[in-house]
């Protein structure tokens, strides 16, 4: 019987949903506990020297397409590598949650005076996205994970690996030129991605996470068969 094609293997759906849920809790939920606390501004003279470039908002917002594509690629790798990728993302988001709760940060955004389409989009972005939860940058963290998803994947063409690196770096730069983040946020996001990816492998966390998810998938598969009257 021919195996059914799956965009994302069934075994990866549960960890993917968990990491997306944790991402929402980290970014939006933490604000419920820190909104009335003092927020630190970590910008410096180097940040002040980075120009505000409104059109780069298209890179900043366009990242979501890149994230979807490369996270699918990351989840479609050989199983051990896929779980290393997704468990590292999960671990990194836990660190982000701790950082946002323990050390709230903010920055000073520019006054937007023009009326071009890019400046109007920037105004909308500023209204929708508060200047908090900056260190480390989840935008940079997730974009760098997209590069990690393909960096050592033998099935991915070399040209696409370079494209992924270029896009990830461009997104990191766009967080600065849209004044959504400052330099330390960017470096912290990239460093956290790399360290988390190393940690889950060296500590055995990715193997533990894989075993837990496999047991969970087996349990759900058994329940599905039971509901259809099949023996297991």
Summarize the structure.
The protein has 232 residues and is mainly α.
Structure commentary:
The protein is mainly alpha-helical and 232 residues long. It has a domain at 63-106 and 129-214. It has 10 helices and 2 strands. It has helices spanning 10-29, 31-34, 45-49, 57-75, 79-102, 117-128, 138-151, 158-177, 183-203, 205-227, and strands at residues 40-41, 105-106. It has a two-stranded parallel ribbon with strand order 1-2. The mean pLDDT is 92.
Topology:
Elements: H1 10-29, H2 31-34, E1 40-41, H3 45-49, H4 57-75, H5 79-102, E2 105-106, H6 117-128, H7 138-151, H8 158-177, H9 183-203, H10 205-227
Parallel strand pairs: 1-2
Helix pairs in contact: 1-5, 1-10, 4-7, 4-8, 5-7, 5-9, 5-10, 7-8, 7-9
What are the defining features of this structure?
232 residues; mainly alpha; 2 strands; globular
Mean pLDDT: 92
Helix content percent band: 55-70%
Tally of contiguous helical segments: 10
Structural class: mainly alpha
Rg on CA atoms, Å: 20 Å
Largest sheet: 2 strands, parallel
What portion of residues belong to β-strands? under 5%
The end-to-end distance, rounded to whole angstroms, is: 20 Å
Oligomerization: single chain
H-E order: HHEHHHEHHHHH
Task: Give, in spatial order, the strands making up the sheet with the most strands.
Answer: 1-2
Question: Rough shape?
Answer: globular
